[in-house]
Write a structure and sequence with these properties.
Layout: E1 5-10, H1 24-43, H2 47-52, E2 55-66, E3 75-85, E4 89-98, E5 104-116, H3 127-134, H4 147-158
Antiparallel strand pairs: 1-3, 2-5, 3-4, 4-5
């Protein structure tokens, strides 16, 4: 099964500021929407199906680094992968590149906490799901070293 997923998007006019730059908050929207697409397309996971089962994941932390501007009508490649998982949380790395994947535009690490929808409380992943996600963790990323370390690694590789 594929660990690293990617998809392409075109930056829309209404997502930009008056100077034609992608609005900072919209980076997060694009990246989270891409991750949802990746879950569906690469792992056959749909969030509404989990919601029907009474569980969901809520964002408990975003760490984002804006590296280069993205402009109206740019085509971007957004890639994502799971970099850490516990019995109640997952951490996902999402990268936004130019369409040739030569320039890193932004890097985001997002932590999602598994909750029971009715109680709103943290809940452990089911054993079967925990085993599944453990097999998807990108082992070459040292999440414990932190985002700055990862960013230096990525920028060193691209330049």
């Amino acid at each position: 099964m594929q660990i690293f997923s990617q998809s392409y998007y075109i930056v829309r006019f209404n997502d930009c500021d008056p100077m034609g730059h992608l609005n900072n908050a919209r980076y997060i929207d694009y990246m989270l929407n891409a991750r949802e697409d990746h879950l569906r397309d690469s792992y056959n996971i749909t969030l509404p199906e989990f919601a029907r089962q009474g569980v969901a994941w809520v964002v408990t932390n975003h760490e984002i680094q804006y590296i280069r501007p993205v402009f109206y009508n740019d085509k971007v490649c957004i890639a994502s992968q799971l970099i850490e998982a516990t019995d109640t949380q997952i951490k996902v790395e999402i990268l936004m590149y130019d369409d040739a994947m030569q320039q890193l535009k932004a890097l985001m690490w997002t932590t999602f906490t598994h909750i029971h929808i009715k109680t709103g409380k943290r809940e452990k992943h089911k054993a079967e799901f925990q085993q599944f996600i453990t097999g998807l963790i990108a082992r070459d990323i040292k999440a414990a070293a932190g985002m700055r370390s990862r960013l230096a690694e990525l920028l060193g590789t691209l330049q």
